[in-house]
Amino acid sequence: MKVPGKYLLFLGDVADRLSAKTACGLLDWARDECVGQSRLTGCGVDLGLPDLDFAAARQAGAQTLVIGVAPFGGTIAPHWIEPIVAALTAGLNVASGMHIRLRSVPAIAAAADAAGVGLFDIRVPAATYPIASGRKRAGRRMLMVGTDCAVGKKYTALTIARDMAARGMKASFRATGQTGILIAGEGVPIDAVVADFVAGAAEALSPDNHADHWDVIEGQGSLFHPAYAGVALGLLHGSQPDAIVLCHAAGRTHIDGYPDFPIPALAECVDLNLRLARLTNPAARCAGIAINTSALPATARADHLRAVSAQLGMPCFDPLATGSGAMLDHLTAAVG
């Protein structure tokens, strides 16, 4: 699936940037593809892009309205249908990472057909996948795992793949979610794969490769999430990671939206992920800890990272603020 660029990012009326993580990810990693934003009354997010109506977006070169929000449950709010139809009527394609398919909404399907434009459902698997084989594959794999959802697994994987490439290392970012797929142009929407085939899809995502090549795999969910632990486990087993990177948001104490589920200590999170990863790769190890420190004062970042590193005895970094260089130094010293 190749979604026509450039993009107009639809933010709806969401209240915060966490709810607009798809749009934020595209802005940070595919900035040249983003020509503007489309917001409804009451929207609490401003990406700093021009607010464009659909005609102006077309004049600015936009070809696709990307639904840039990820509401709980992945549904399209009823009051979003009218502006989406208006975008289609104006000649824009529409791309969505929702679980609900665009064409399943009659008004959207009719508008797309009438205008002769495309509907792109990023979260619909483009292939069928076999049950996992468990076979050891050539090449190296690094999987991002999380203490929770929305802690920076995608940003961490993109940063590591970029930093590896800058060092001349062979590396590929492997996308497992809608935003990553839009950025990379390919991938597997792993949380939309039928449960029995998640591990098989992860194997297909990171096939045999050169011995010194790293597949840097975007994680999904968390083993500690009461709703999304299943996808995290299937991805962990199918990826067969040689290395994991634990991703966490500084200051987060419980699973977002689930106040009765506290996040365990980071050491416990590392331990459980490694114990379960070793079912399919007995040599799995933790390469480091990625901390999203955006909730901390900038002056507190360095001390926080040092403290976590000293506590766990491994590199700790903020992907956006510091890059992954310290972790890669440690990794290459250990495995070459």
Q: How would you portray this structure in words?
A:
This protein is an alpha/beta fold. It folds into two domains: 7-121, Rossmann fold (3-Layer(aba) Sandwich); 140-335, Rossmann fold (3-Layer(aba) Sandwich), CATH 3.40.50. It has eleven helices and eleven strands. The protein has helices at residues 21-29, 54-59, 81-89, 106-115, 153-166, 178-184, 198-205, 229-239, 266-277, 298-312, 325-335; strands at residues 7-12, 34-39, 64-67, 93-96, 119-121, 140-146, 170-174, 213-217, 243-249, 285-292, 316-317. A six-stranded parallel sheet has the order 7-8-6-9-10-11, with helices on both faces. The protein has a five-stranded parallel sheet with strand order 2-1-3-4-5, with helices on both faces. Helix 3 packs parallel to helix 4 (106-115) and helix 7 packs across helix 8. The chain is globular and about 55 Å long. The two termini are 35 Å apart. The mean pLDDT is 95. Residues 42-125 form the D-glutamate N-acetyltransferase-like N-terminal domain. Residues 131-327 form the D-glutamate N-acetyltransferase-like C-terminal domain. This is DUF1611 domain-containing protein.
Strand and helix map with partners:
Layout: E1 7-12, H1 21-29, E2 34-39, H2 54-59, E3 64-67, H3 81-89, E4 93-96, H4 106-115, E5 119-121, E6 140-146, H5 153-166, E7 170-174, H6 178-184, H7 198-205, E8 213-217, H8 229-239, E9 243-249, H9 266-277, E10 285-292, H10 298-312, E11 316-317, H11 325-335
Parallel strand pairs: 1-2, 1-3, 3-4, 4-5, 6-8, 6-9, 7-8, 9-10, 10-11
Helix pairs in contact: 1-6, 3-4, 7-8
